[in-house]
Amino acid sequence: MILAVSINHAGPFAFLLDTGTQMTVVDLSLAAELNLRSTGKAAVAGVSFEGAARFAQLDTLEVGDHLVADQGVLVYDMSRVQEAGFGVRGLLGEDFLSRYDVLINNAYMVVCMDDTGAMRAGINGQHVARNSSGGRPGRSEQSTSAGPTEGRLSTR
């Protein structure tokens, strides 16, 4: 699922929701556009990624009405992913998602993110516990349409 993500109040940019990625990834070309300063070097090894990367620190990362300050990210050349037909500028990883209860409904292309705990009480089914690094309580529900082949984000 592709979501609209804003970085340092710029964007939105198309990011692939990736629950298997531990850390959010920003494409090298987008990092250059946004003048993201490197905070260190990294090596990436995974199912679809391998090679050199670097760390960067974002002032803000926003999805819907959920804003996280001081988000660390990996900067990686995603040109091979883009050449394979994925028009994304990054991957939204577990480091962001773990702050929320997240419901992904592929059939309806909807992602619901909740930092109030209200969604958990109203959903039947298995709840997969995550290490939570906190969230922002008291957010209201909002839905945004992301386009014909993209998902819709409902936040709470």
CATH topological fold name = Cathepsin D, subunit A, domain 1
> How many domains would you count in the coordinates?
1
Mean pLDDT: 79
Order of helices and strands: EEEHEEEHEHEEHEE
Which stretches are poorly predicted, pLDDT < 50 over at least 5 residues?
131-156
- What is the general shape? globular
* Helicity range: 10-25%
The CATH architecture can be named as Beta Barrel
Please write the CATH class name: Mainly Beta
Largest sheet: 6 strands, mixed, barrel
Beta-strand share of residues: 35-45%
Q: Total helix count?
A: 4
Terminus-to-terminus distance = 19 Å
Please outline the helices and strands:
Blueprint: E1 2-7, E2 10-17, E3 25-27, H1 28-33, E4 38-45, E5 50-63, E6 66-76, H2 79-83, E7 90-92, H3 94-97, E8 101-105, E9 110-114, H4 118-122, E10 142-144, E11 152-155
Parallel strand pairs: 2-7, 3-6, 9-11
Antiparallel strand pairs: 1-2, 1-5, 3-7, 4-5, 5-6, 8-9, 10-11
Question: How would you sum up this structure, described in words?
Answer:
By secondary structure, the chain is mostly beta strands. The chain is built from 4 helices and 11 strands; from the N terminus they run βββαβββαβαββαββ. The two termini are 19 Å apart. The protein has a single domain, classed as Cathepsin D, subunit A, domain 1.
